[in-house]
């Protein structure tokens, strides 16, 4: 007899835990938990490297303008890598792509730990996804593959809970990565003969080790993570079962021969089915393409705004304007990441009551306003307060957004659609760092924050107008047909 989760707890506590999606994640499959763990490890590595990426390049003598170019080149390279890997992920195998990505992370970390060549670092950052993390948004192909797999493994009624915990653990990984990185760098720089450059390279060596750990987790995933294929059962028919002479007789049309039935010993696919199965290219329906076009346009606006103020530029801004040490930066962004992580659980509960789109808009809009105000205060305390206020709601749209995207298209299209969305977002983000680099080089860094906040406000209002009444594909299929 199945046991109701939390049956031994007081009713109020049980309801609170259920609202936070704890029962959903604890009762999820082993693969779901491994994918969440993989994201924690990956975002821990990203958080550590992002905190010191701009500072590391600056310590090598790279100018602000070239740092912005570095970030944009990295994002453009990530577009190509993400597009190719997500396009063929379902055909080649999701687990294989995740394992390959972990191996590339390891190699890239080693290159950063031992090389100081600008163009070698650009190449390594592209293949190993050492990129300027943008306002909680992950760069690279892994996110789309993992989210498509989680959508497949999770029933629709708890999907938003699973995504909330998936994003929470990612933000928690970023938080831990930034604070650990900040204190390690601060400690190493206090030692004799330890330059900032040497301290930063230790962080990239840790990045490589985390890549190995992620590879091990990816190897533990089961075949259930691979895409489901719809198969039709056919009885195999051979010419030996048919009387050939009767086919040639005059009364063949009147009494067509019947083949002897064969027992079904397995699944036999038709020729067209076999061709479809062997193809590694996905297909997207016209309805999904229309939805995808609208969402890509909106997400591009939001992502360009995020690209103006990625975490790497944000840490650089606070360092240049307020002369904050690495440990202080680590503590600040640890705090903002933890707040953002916890807010995702609240977003999942809110979305069940007011809907996914309204949750996305009404939580994201205040963060856009706070973002535009960050460069105004002359004191570090006030600027940090605005940054923390922004973090309270800046990521609350992520879990509802991914749940909405998964519901808006067919299950067989999710990996390709999510990959396409990530490619568009990354392309839009890639322009931002160059613009910010030019503004920073001319002492107009503050303009980037104002533009970013204004664009995000426009994105929120447009999203609300276009999709507030939209119903997911699964919901449409369940709806009764008029007249029946």
Structural class designation: mainly alpha
Rg on CA atoms, Å: 26 Å
β-sheet strand percentage: under 5%
Principal-axes shape call: globular
Number of helices: 20
- Helix and strand element order: HHHHHHHHHHHHHHHHHHHH
Number of beta-strand segments: 0
Mean pLDDT: 79
Low-confidence stretches: 230-254, 259-279
Helix content: over 70%
The rounded distance between the terminal residues' Cα atoms is 38 Å
Q: Which sheet architecture does the biggest sheet show?
A: none
Write out key terms for the chains shown.
20 helices, 0% strand, mainly alpha, 484 residues
Task: Describe the protein.
The structure is a single chain. This protein is mostly helical and 484 residues long. Helix content is 72%, strand content 0%. It has 20 helices and no strands. It has helices at 11-19, 22-26, 30-59, 64-92, 94-114, 118-128, 142-153, 159-190, 196-219, 244-248, 271-278, 286-308, 311-322, 326-354, 356-373, 380-391, 398-408, 414-441, 445-467, 473-478. α4 (64-92) packs parallel to α6, α5 runs antiparallel to α7 and α8 (159-190) packs antiparallel against α9 (196-219). The longest helix is centred in the middle third of the chain and has 32 residues, at 159-190. Residues 230-254 and 259-279 have low confidence and may be disordered.
Q: What can be said about this structure in brief?
A:
This protein is mainly alpha-helical. It is built from 20 helices and no strands.
